[in-house]
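Hi C.,

You asked whether I'd gotten around to modeling the 219-residue construct. I have! Everything is below, sequence then structure, no commentary in between.
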Amino acid sequence: MLGLLNRSRRWLPGVLAGIGLAIHVAPLCYGDWEFIYSFDDGANFVENPMIQALTLPNIVAMATTVKINVYEPLSWLLKAFVHGLVGMQSKYVRMVSVLVHWTACGILGCATRRLLAPSFPDRASVAIAANLSAILFAIHPVHIEVLMWPSAQPYPLAMLFTSIMFLAHLHKPWYLRKMSVCLVLSMALVATTYVANQRGAGTDVDTISLTIPRIDFML
């Protein structure tokens, strides 16, 4: 009986994650919802030629353009990949946002487990707690806007990079410890935060999401 209970504890996070992911994806797969077929900001999608063909000129444009007062080249690149695969369909933009969000949360769970494991003798309990905390973060209703608003796709993407940098910092491989160029790169990337808008850093720049990965890298 005790063995069954222990096994169920190990499976519980995976089961809950599967249920949460299914709940997020289900409205995009079933039901004739009006919002699924619409883009909220046409300037970001149907009126944005940069994402409608994955060509070298468009990639250069992504790296050099400020559009509707934001600078988000990696997000535009992701949109271009999605458009190349399925065309101009907002449903799939939202699905990609959901997948990126859950991937980021999975990596966050791994990073949390890595962070807490040395402080507690019961590694199994630490793993379960870390995974459950990541799932709680993933399913929290506060994320509904970034998952179902196509123009908010940069935010789960920023969270993905933040989680990766957090995990990389905890592992501290030699090439991250020894390369002083990381400091220079970090400062340069932080600086891009403050020139992302035409009028400097404003309300459209997510300073925290953009700088935390660089700070993790620097540390």
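If it helps when you're writing up: The chain is about 70% helix and 0% strand.

Thanks,
B.
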